[in-house]
Amino acid sequence: MQRHLLRRRALLASAALAAGAPALAACGPDIASDEESGASSLLKAPDRTEGEITVWDRSGDLFEVFEGVIADFNAKYPDIKVNHVAVDIDAKLQNTLITGADVPDGVFLDDAKVGGFTDYLWDLSDVLAPYAADIAPQKLDVNTVGGGVYGVPFDLDPGLLFYNATALEAAGIDVEAIETYDDLLQAARDYQAAVPGSAPIHLEQSAFLGQLQLEMYASQLGTSIADADGNLRLDTPEFERILTFLDTVRQEGLGTRAEYLTPTDIAELDNGNQVFYPWAIWFSFAPQQVLTETAGDWRATQLPAWDAGGARSGAMGGSSFVLPKDGKNADLAWLFYEFLMFDEAGYAAVWGPGDVYPEGLATSIPSYTPAADPAKPLYSGITALGGQDLWTVATEAGAQIPGGTPTPAWWTGAVDYLGNDVQRMLDGDLTPQEVLAQASEDIQTNLVDRQ
């Protein structure tokens, strides 16, 4: 698979890439409230099973996965024609919703963008009600705005600790002894002593992905940079603790500073200098598709906890399906997404072995807990992970992710402040406390207060 898909997966599984959501909120036409218009924004399940729907996805691997499931859907709903269109959603969706012209019935959308589009989307509370108790809390939370649920949850992206098992075994490092982040620091020190010149822990150099990873760490502690009402809550003991950990890695020379899967990063992974990678499950794409010298050497385990007995995973990125109000057949599009996510035939076709991923879609797990049953794997041994049963590791980690909050529309804009300030800390120019104070003031003044 082409290298650009690596970059695409990192960005699509993460927060919004452009400031589209804030622009939409600022520039969109006035929408009458439900009370003013007399119309309900609650989508109802259709009483028909025939018609035609248009659904938008981005081109690439997931487009091909969903394309392959249409035949399974039509086996259940033979009279619903699915027009599956590859679209640059970031470039096209905003203007389409504003103008109301040629609006699709369903759209694959980053979780981080849902909160910025809710005026244009159906509230799915009613149709999701039969499934809500079995959806991962974090995924339901990120799609809930003002009491309404605006996305059909797709993937759950638990954070995992990926590690080079071959290199660590040669150095005498016992991964099973790593239970906390303090243990990880000690394991990195021990590895560096055994392999002089190594820098064992990944330190993300991209401001955007570094901020996303920061949110993964915060998710473990049950927090995020904004609360459920969109209020900033960055300057806290939890974030200070996370930044202090990252700054310790920097100060002690225990980290490889590189941007996710750029040539430098890949080289340091393949030469055994970088052996610990705390990241979302979608890092599994690297040993499967990119690493050459160490493919087969890598394994995954749960993230360390911040405190003994604490959560061993946090969410890092994710996407859902949304249904625009102006879509002509959004109710039929609901049947399509209901099949993909909640029908065994659908989710088995999405995550199980197929033409695109012969061993299964092992870069995420379903957010619907009956589909993410550790005892009923949709994929199992991954050759590039030495045959490891990644399904069991990921589903156990996913079950530990605390609940979340909707991603605020200003999240991407915050990268200019928080994301960049974290990088300045890793340059040695700021302390963790200075990052939190400075970024909080800048985000509050330049983003939150200007909404």
Automatic annotation (TrEMBL):
Cleavable signal peptide: 1-25
Keyword set, alphabetical order: Signal, Transport
TM region positions: none
Location of this chain's protein in the cell: Cell envelope
PROSITE patterns the UniProt entry points to: PROKAR_LIPOPROTEIN (PS51257), TAT (PS51318)
Chief site of localization: other
Family stated for the protein in its record: Belongs to the bacterial solute-binding protein 1 family.
Protein name (record): Extracellular solute-binding protein
UniProt organism field: Glycomyces mayteni
